[in-house]
């Protein structure tokens, strides 16, 4: 355990709010309908914009004529986004944007724009690639590298590739710095810097990019051992959408020709301006980014996006504020997708259940950028393994980080295969997982502890039955249980926090962060309140503005660790600064003072005291401001760490006549270090289970192979789980000894990883048949039952 | 009220005899009509229907007990009128085609999708939007900082806060209004009736568990 310093998280007896259940502070304004989101912004004189999308999945623009549109009364700006000659790779990719006084005029203008295309062949399927594809080799171009990074290729793979194969470009320091700014790990940057530079090799065009097989141990020999039991199968997850309730977009206005105000729906308030400076030709200080509330992001809202830049241009041309929010169909087509991933897996164990070997060949697509290779086998470090992956580059539109990129797919593939192996061994999967729990690495003790709790909450041991017994039930409705486990990092991101105490006693905190509805505001105030000894209501918190101290992107479960840590350090310093000012008046040393419920008093003689307000008058005429930072090696200890364990169990019923799957109950047991707000932490897990049921049973982006168009870009046929689809959800958060001292760790990703695997395994347990691909829609269930 | 009920309600309540969907289909017919202010009667499919426009027409709406007037294109939905003309942005534009419930408001006490009602058709009716439920606005209405201080909320809204029935909050106003419509009609719904009443609304963050708890709490507090 790290040495205690004033910055250390307080021990349990000293916490008043941290670890308790506090209602989110933005709850009232949201429930009241008064929270202003980006979509709700309406500066005086605002006009409206939309974009014309390409109707083809693959085409080249050959001519654009906007002259008729420009003559329509009420049209204020027309902006060509992609010029004639440009190759287009997905339906809906933006060609021209129009801003006009009303939306009907915008639509009329879009209809009047003539774009001609040369239609090119497309691919929208993600079926298993042919066997005879050559492994991709040759030095990586900047585009190749961008592709790898955008698809969250594992760091060690990128390092290995550029080190062995080289790169085709000269990496400048500026380029590397910008990569670091986008979160590329330092070892990867070092590898790129040191990679051998080679001339580009002409690569034949192909939809498929097969990486070299990765081998550890001796998988072939291990499979051939005499006493091993082997299971085989194909497992995977289809492409799904983020489907944020608030679509992507901005409202932009230029108060003068040099400055632009950007209201943007984003997970990255502090990081938007740097991405707009180049395209707009103005410096970052002249781009003012605002956002109080965001209607969902889930990993899809990190940049201004092309349409954000376009909207700023429209507003500049029109000389008026312009709103450009995507319509629902465009949101589902182009504004985010989770890559598909499938794998043909062979896995083996000794007769006692000890895992010995894994062999998988995976494939999947994330559209034009290929797919992200899920980490296989997931969590379990099986000693002998071979994995290979083929990314399919097709024309379904770009992927974006979807909560816990690559992990849900990895869980579905791995836990499905392990569940089938347990069945082949005639073992209860819970016993089988526990038998191999040491292979889960440093958090193995947590997994074991969590499985014990989950077993109690689900009644697993009491009710679990083998597949055969469930499938043999006379009823047409079969019932089954399934389980899964998962991990994630979740260390806090870089965050700066300014805390100001004013001479009149007012306290304000500023961070350029954002609250995605995860409870960020609430947790910042809880930390500050516990540290300063004054109520949350006395502290004014300002976020959502890039003029405040920068905080990182809310992606990868990094926000809570970042903002809680920077707020803690700012608050500790502010408390010390104030006590130093008032100590002489209380005839004590600063360290002899404490602040309890807004009263500053001498610990030994509490009657010697003064109120917060009186104390602040001692500050003098100028307010005191303190900057807290995460990370900060000068103010140890580290207040945030990474690496969590979570387990989930699902109980399902499957109607074998209709193919409809219903989840009866889900149990989630999750650790995330020191929990700040138990209420919003539980809400994250409940929300993740709900979203998990949704993607396990209903969600899929369906493409028409003939036209290359998405067939369900709406909320009627891109089906989300509704209130009637959600069963009893039981959440248990691991807290106390062994967990609290790890510091704060993020929670947005972990609990959304396992639902697909747990539900798919439960359906298999009910039917005695494996349905490899989620979502487990009635057609897939019925097809599997018919064999 | 379920999705289906609401669509029926929408069809039945249109005093022009036109739903938004039919209106959109009639685009070609209306374009041929000369500029008029106020409705002109046209025989469409053997039925006399008033036809507004083209061009802006004066529209007067009774929203939350107050009169709101504007010159609007006849094709403007009640949702867009509320949001873009009267700055009542509680109802959200999410799907804009009657699929998600985020724009739910009450029309003469019944829940409707505001994106499926034309503003001209909402004239003469009592429109209730989420903004009317708040008893007293507190810190954070419209801008930073945001705080629970000073707010006095309708019991339904308070139950949403207490039971954490919201995360990003974008669907919340729709759920509040769907809940109000349900509880006004049926103060003590069973859990099944709650599910039916809120099945016309979607939430992406996954707050249904909190929503069920919130409605159970409100129903419980109302006494037998």
Look up the CATH topology of the domain at 443-490 and 641-786 in chain A.
Aldehyde Oxidoreductase, domain 4
Radius of gyration of chain A (Å): 28 Å
CATH homologous superfamily caption of the largest domain in chain B: Beta-grasp domain
Portion of residues in beta strands of chain B equals 15-25%
Shape annotation of chain A: globular
Explain what this protein looks like in three dimensions.
The complex is a heterodimer of chains A (787) and B (224). Chain A has 787 residues and is α+β, with helices and mostly antiparallel strands. Among the domains of chain A are: 12-30 and 492-630, Aldehyde oxidase/xanthine dehydrogenase, molybdopterin binding domain (Aldehyde Oxidoreductase, domain 4, 2-Layer Sandwich), CATH 3.30.365.10; 38-122 and 248-325, Aldehyde oxidase/xanthine dehydrogenase, a/b hammerhead (Aldehyde Oxidoreductase, domain 3), CATH 3.90.1170.50; 443-490 and 641-786, Aldehyde oxidase/xanthine dehydrogenase, molybdopterin binding domain (Aldehyde Oxidoreductase, domain 4, 2-Layer Sandwich), CATH 3.30.365.10. Chain A is built from 22 helices and 30 strands. In chain A, helix 6 (173-181) packs antiparallel against helix 7 (186-194), helix 12 (407-424) runs parallel beside helix 21 and helix 20 crosses helix 21. Chain A is globular. A five-stranded mixed sheet of chain B has the order 4-3-7-5-6, with helices on both faces. Chain B contains eight helices and seven strands. Chain B has helices at residues 3-13, 20-25, 27-31, 78-85, 155-162, 172-185, 191-197, 208-221; strands at 40-44, 47-51, 57-63, 66-72, 104-107, 110-113, 126-128. Chain B is globular, with a radius of gyration of 19 Å. Chain B folds into two domains: 3-131, Beta-grasp domain (Ubiquitin-like (UB roll), Roll), CATH 3.10.20; 133-221, DNA polymerase, domain 1 (Orthogonal Bundle), CATH 1.10.150. The interface between A and B is large, with 68 and 69 residues.
